[in-house]
Amino acid sequence: MAAVTARSYHPGLVNAAMMDGSVRGFSTDITQEMWRALATRSRGEVDATAP
Which residues constitute the domain of residue 26? Predict the structure, then answer.
């Protein structure tokens, strides 16, 4: 299975458009598990890296 990773011309950062219209920057080191969690609604995942 091919893995798709975050990519950007910004070193170490990728921007993502959220469904509420906001744009947020994420580290390119984000795990595939976290990307999947961010794409779900109310599955209960907790982002341990959030402030």
Answer: 12-39
